[in-house]
Specification:
9 helices, 7 strands, Rossmann fold, single chain, globular, seven-stranded mixed beta sheet, alpha/beta, 14% strand
């Protein structure tokens, strides 16, 4: 049974001359530690879609925004439920970042006919590979509030771990943003026994809609070539001088996403 989802909806009621006349709604799904409001409204992305005459459906994933925030990792076994519950009867365009992109991709695998076009940002090799060490360090940083110099061992002087620790501290900072529940966000990282395994190339063969993969050139999810090659109709857009966390507010990302779904304001 699907959850009762109060999705964020905005219909600009564009007239026939608008660029959005007859176009599908646009579903927006944020990343880990974000929300519809923080990721898409605050950046002005939803305003641009409104200017293009597009209806917007914003989804807060479980553990985020206005959604319930359970602390039990078992509750997060299937994050697609809130996305599926928010989808209308007709195909949509959908844009997701990081965890939201993962969730949209899994939704498209299960229900490919629900999407016209997909923009998936901030994902790459992590679709196929799990980094348990990174996850452990992120959870430790969240529980520590991101204060430790080395989230694994304060006496650890292994410089190879510095990059991992910096990423972990950034995740911990996001978890502590106003409105977030760090315990819930840590539970998402841990997940439960019902959490899906990493995907394989075979899993992606049924996603036939056009897909735009957008990744910053300094994103830790690189490389994304394997993902692009595995999807039947995918294009890669690389953002210059952009890391993972800066992607949603990158002008290059916004421009590429709007152009891909034919929603450039005129």
């Amino acid at each position: 049974m699907l959850p009762d989802v109060d999705a964020h909806r905005a219909d600009p009621n564009a007239d026939a001359a608008g660029t959005g006349a007859g176009a599908p709604p646009v579903v927006l799904v944020h990343g880990w530690g974000g929300s519809f409001s923080a990721t898409w409204q605050r950046s002005g992305f939803t305003d641009l879609l409104a200017d293009a005459g597009r209806e917007v459906i914003g989804v807060d994933l479980l553990g985020h925004g206005t959604a319930p925030k359970p602390h039990d990792p078992e509750a997060y076994g299937d994050l697609t439920e809130r996305v599926v519950a928010a989808l209308p009867d007709r195909p949509v365009d959908a844009i997701g970042f990081s965890l939201g992109a993962h969730t949209l991709l899994r939704t498209a695998i299960d229900e490919p006919g629900r999407f016209r076009r997909l923009v998936l940002a901030g994902i790459g090799r992590n679709v196929f590979e799990r980094d348990d060490e990174m996850t452990r360090r992120i959870v430790a940083a969240i529980e520590d509030g991101g204060r430790s110099e080395h989230v694994d061992d304060p006496d650890n002087d292994d410089r190879d771990n510095d990059g991992i620790d910096n990423v972990a501290r950034l995740f911990a900072q996001y978890a502590s943003q106003p409105g977030n529940d760090p315990a819930a966000l840590a539970a998402i990282m841990i997940r439960g026994a019902g959490a899906p395994e990493s995907l394989t190339e075979r899993d992606l063969t049924g996603v036939h809609c056009p897909v735009l993969i957008v990744v910053g050139d300094n994103d830790f999810v690189l490389p994304a070539d394997r993902l692009v090659s595995a999807l039947p109709d995918a294009t890669l857009k690389t953002l210059r001088r952009t890391d993972h966390f800066a992607t949603p507010e990158s002008f290059a990302f916004i421009d590429a996403a709007l152009e891909f779904i034919d929603a450039v304001p005129r």
